[in-house]
TrEMBL record:
Localization, UniProt: Spore core
Family: Belongs to the SspH family.
Lineage, opening ranks: Bacteria, Bacillati, Bacillota, Bacilli, Bacillales
Tagged with keyword Kinase: no
Principal subcellular localisation of the protein: other
Protein name, entry field: H-type small acid-soluble spore protein
UniProt keywords, alphabetically: Sporulation
Keyword Acyltransferase among record annotations: no
């Protein structure tokens, strides 16, 4: 995923179908300086992590 699209998803009130390594995730924030995304798995909101934006995949309708 590109950084601009990740930022759009992070700021949108509409839930997008995004995965990281096949795991559905929620994008909290995009770090412009490092091209990193702050995410957490939808089923484990306490497991926040930072991953490269390029590792995120958007899938069709949620």
């Amino acid at each position: 995923m590109n950084k601009q699209r990740a930022k759009e998803i992070a700021s949108s009130p509409v839930m997008a179908n995004v995965t990281c390594d096949g795991i559905p995730v929620y994008i909290q924030h995009i770090d412009d300086d490092n091209d990193m995304a702050r995410i957490y798995p939808l089923n484990q909101p306490d497991q926040e992590m930072s991953v490269p934006v390029a590792s995120l995949r958007e899938h069709g309708e949620y």
